[in-house]
Design a protein that fits this description.
mainly alpha; two-stranded antiparallel ribbon; calcium; EF_hand_dom
Length: 109
């Protein structure tokens, strides 16, 4: 399964275009433009599994920095500031990583 099985390639492209400049990434805006915020809980779990590169059940900081590249090969890496802000916004239990439930909450809120 790939992200384009769940999300429209044109919506993904629009979301990536919106955050091309360093330090312009907004998770909320990305989720809206890409169509993620309109997906079901089941679809968000599938998206999470794809984004969890090492299949640990969590998206860790080192995976998060490559978040955009999971949507399109060659997309930019998130800056350290963007990565930390993204992690802080989603990591509700303070364990330094994003679990599936935390991811789903962030996308749907």
């Amino acid at each position: 399964m790939s992200l384009t099985d769940i999300l429209s390639p044109s919506d993904i492209a629009a979301a990536l275009r919106d955050c091309q400049a360093p330090d312009s990434f907004s998770p909320k805006k990305f989720f809206q433009i890409s169509g993620m915020s309109k997906k079901s809980s089941s679809q968000l779990k599938d998206i999470f599994r794809i984004l969890d590169n090492d299949q640990s059940g969590f998206i860790e900081e080192d995976e998060l920095k490559y978040f955009l590249q999971r949507f399109e090969y060659g997309a930019r890496v998130l800056t350290a500031s963007e990565t930390k802000t993204f992690l802080a916004a989603a990591d509700h239990d303070g364990d330094g990583k994003i679990g599936a439930e935390e991811f789903q909450e962030m996308v749907q809120s």
